[in-house]
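All the exercises in this workshop are built on plain-text protein records. The record below serves as our worked example for the rest of this section.
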Amino acid sequence: MTTARRRKKNEETGSDSKTKDSTVFGVPETSEGRVTVEAKSLVKPGRPDKPDKPDKPKKKAHKSEFVPEEKHDFALEAATPAPDEPGKPLRLRKVDRTKLLSEIEEAGGAEILSAATLPKSTVDPDDTDRDVEDMLQPSPWTGFRILARGTTEEAPAVLRGLRPGDILLHNHPNGILRPSQADLEIASLCGRSGIGFAIHDNACRRMFVVIEPFEADKPVPLDREKMAGFLRADGPLACLLPGYEERHGQIDLLLKIVDALNHPYHAILEGETGVGKSMAYLIPTVFYAHENKRRVAISTNTINLQYQLCNKDLPLLARVLPFEFKFCLVKGRGNYLCVRRLEEVENATDGEHLLEAEELDQFQRLRSWAGKTRDGSRTDLSWEPAESLWEKVNSDKDTCLGLRCGQYRQCFFYGARRLAAEADLLVVNHHLLFSDLALRSATNEYNQTAVIPSYQAVVLDEAHNLEEIATSHFGQRATSFGLQRTLGRLYHRRGRREGGVLFTIQSRMQLEKCPITGKTRDRLTVDLREKIIPLRDEVSDASRELFERIATHVIGDKQPRPGEHRQRVAPHQRETQAFCALREAALALREKIQDLARRVGKLHREVDALLDEIDDNDGRKLLEMPLAELSGFPGRLNEIKLAITLFFDPEAEHQNDFVHFFSVVVRGSSRWPAFQSAPLDVSESMIDSLFTRIDSAILVSATLSTRHNFNFIKGRLGLASDEIEPKPLEGRFPSPFDYSKQALLLIPDDLPEPAAREFMEATIDPVFEIAKSSNGGTLVLCTSYAHLQILHERLAPRLLREGLECLRQGEAERTHLLEKFRDDGNAVLFATDSFWEGVDVPGHALRNLVITKLPFAIPDDPILVARQELLERAGKNAFSEYQLPMAAIKLKQGFGRLIRSRRDRGTIWILDRRLVTKFYGKFFIESLPPARLVHGRFANILDEARAFFT
C-alpha cells in the first residue's frame, strides 16, 4: 500500500446551502483513492440560475496514502434534451418502477434518491413481469434500491455502497430533465468512480442519462478441458515430474474452480490430504488473471504454505504455461526496513537518545545489513533483532512521507508494493487479507489499492480458520502493554533521559536551523511542556490504574498459574458494583484520551501549517519526519477510545452484538491485562466485506466438512444466507490415499475419561508404550500446555534411556523443532495447539500420531459461551450445532498430520474413550478419513499396533 501521511483537507464547492430552491447532496470526491461523502448544495434543477462561481483554489494537499491503479478521464458532455425531447425510457423492471412510483407518491411528489446496477447478462431470468414496451428496450437495470428520501426542494444524496457499474438516479419533480450545473458536478464526480448518473421524471417513465455507468468487459471464460489437460498423465506437468500420477480428485477440484471463476460463483471446496489443492487452484487462477487482466489474491493461514506456493508451485507452473505471468508474496508493511527511519536514528542528536545501550550492537548489524539486502524485509535477516529496536526502524504508515521522502525510490516497502501492483497473483496471509477487507469496507472502495492492490477473485486456502481470523479483525481490543507503548512512543522519561516524538519536536525546535523561531516557538514549547506532556502523563497513570484494577478483578492479588485468564462480562453483570467502578474509571480515561488526541492533533496542524508557509526546505525537513509520526497518534488514540466505548459505555451502539471479556496473561511475575469485544456472529461482516463485494471467493481446505456436508462452515461464515446469490458451489474431493491399508486408528476404552482427575496421570505409561511400539517417530498432540508438560517431564528420561530423543514445543522455534524431528527419524515430539495443523512430515520420520483427547474448545471460553447462548436463544442445540462440528474439524486437522504421501504408513492413537462410549463419538469418526478402526483394552490393541509395524 502506498502510504504518505493523510491530509483531510476536503474543500466545499457549489451554491449557498441556505438557498431556498436547492437540492442537498452528498458529493463523492476522489479523496485518498476512495469515494467520500461531503454535504453539498445544488441549484434546483430546471431553474435558469447562473452557475456558481468556483471557490478560489486552495493549497494543494499532499498525496494521499491511496494511489489509484489506473486513471480514468471522463469527458462530461453538457448536452441536454431539447424542450420537445422527453428523454429515453427509464430502464427499470416493471416491479422496480412500481416501487419507485409508490415511494414518490408516499413522499408527496418529493425527490427520491435511488440506485440500480448494470445487469450481468442480456437476459434477466428473474424478470418475469416485463411488459411489451420493456421487451423493445435494452435489458433493464437490476439490483434496484432506495437510498434516500427528501422534500420537493432537496434530498440528501447517499453514495456509500455504490460501486462501478451502479447508476445513481433521482427525480426532478418539475418534470424537466435538463441537468443543472450542480447535477453536472455530481455526474462528473460519480463518473470518476465508474458510477452512472441519471435524472428521471415523477412518472418513472422517462430519463436522461448524464453519465453512463461503467460496464466492465465480460470475462473470457476458461476452457475446462484445456485447464484439466495440465494435470493429466500425458500433460505438461507429468513431463517435468518423474513418477507423476494423475489424480482424479485434483482434476475434479480444478474443474469446480474453473466453473466458479467463469460464472462467477463463490465456492466452498474440500480437497482432502493428497489431492493437490494448490496446483488445482493455481492453474485456473493464473489463466483467469492473464486472459482477463484481472488480479487474483491467494490467501493462506500459514507462512509455510505461502513459501511452498512462491518457491515451489508457482515457479514450476511458470515452466509449463504458454505465457509469462507475475506473482508476488505480499508482506505487511511492518516487515520492511525504513531507510529514512534508520538514518533518523543514526543521526539523532545526543539529546534525543533514540537507542538504548543494549540496542547499539544490533543497530550496527542492521546498518550493515541495510547496505547489502535487496529485499529489505525482516525474513531476509539471518538473526532476530530485538522488537524494541525493529519498531524504531521498520516501515510505519504514521511516519511515512511517501513521495515526499528523499528515499522513496530506494524504499524497500514501496519497491515491494510496485512489484505487487504489477503482479497477476498476490500471495498473502489471512491476517493481511482481512486488514485489506476491513479498510475497503470502511472506505467503500474495492477498485483501488488499499492495504494491497485490488483483486477481482480470491482463493482462501486453509479456509477452516476464517471464523477465528474474522473474529479478531471485526472486534475491538485494548491492552495495557499496547496503550503504554503508544504513550511511550509519544513521550517517555527514564530518570533524566527523555524521548518520544514530542521530545524530538521540542528538541528540534530549539536548534538554530529550525525555521520556527521567536514567540511562535516559545508558545508551542509551552503548550507542549505544560499541557500536552502533563496530559499524556495523566493518561498513562489513569490507564495503569485501570488495567491494574482489571487484573485484580480477574485473578485477585495472589500469583495465579501461568497462561491466559479470561472473564466474561455478561449483560446482567454490567450493573454490579465491581463493574460499575471499572466503568467509571474507564470512561474517565476515555475523556482524557480524547482530550490528548485533540491536543496532539492541534499541535500537528499548527506546526504543519507553519511549515507550509516556509520556503526553507532544509528547515522543513528537520521536523518533517517527527511531524509525520505525530500525525498518526490521534488515530491510534481514537481507536483506544472506541474500544473503551464499545466495552464500557452503556449507550454504545451495537454493544449487544459483541461478547465482552477481560483477559490477563500471566508470565512469571508479570501480568498483562486487556479487555476485548469480539463479534458474536461474523457472518454479516463476512457478507458485507467479502461475499457481496468480490465476484468469486473460493474457500479451500482439507477440513471444511463435518459428516460429509458443509452446513456448519457455511452457517458460521454467512455462505448459507439468502443474500448470497447465486448459491455457492460445493464439492468434496477424496484423498487418493488408501487409508484402510496405510493407517490404523486405535482407541483404548479402558482409560479414564478426560474429565477425571487421574486422566493425565493415566496417559503417561500408555504414551511411553505407544512411542516404543514404533521405535519413536511419534508426534504427541495435547489439547493443553499443562498436559504437554506433564508428559514431557515424566517421559523424557525414560524415552532417552530407550535411545529416543525427546523434543518439546516451546524449547525451540517451530521450524527448527520440525527440522530436528525430521532429521532424527526416531524422535518423539510433544506439542499442543499450533502443531495440530501446518505440520508436513512425510516419510518414516512420522509414523505414529498420538492425540491425547478430543479437541473441544475450552468450556468457559467467553466467546464460546456467548455464542452458545446465542444459539440456544434461537432454539438451537449449541453442543451439536457448534461445539461438536468445531471439534470434529480440528480433530480431522490433527489426524491429517500422519499420512502425507502414498508411501506413508502409520498408527493414530486417540486416548479419549468418548469416541466409542458417547453418542457423539460416531459424529467424529464419520468425519475422519476411512482408516481401519480398532478399539478395546489398551494392552490388547497395543499388540495390534506392534504387529502393524512388523
About this structure: Confidence is low (pLDDT under 50) at residues 1-85, 121-136. The chain is about 40% helix and 15% strand. The longest strand covers residues 22-31.
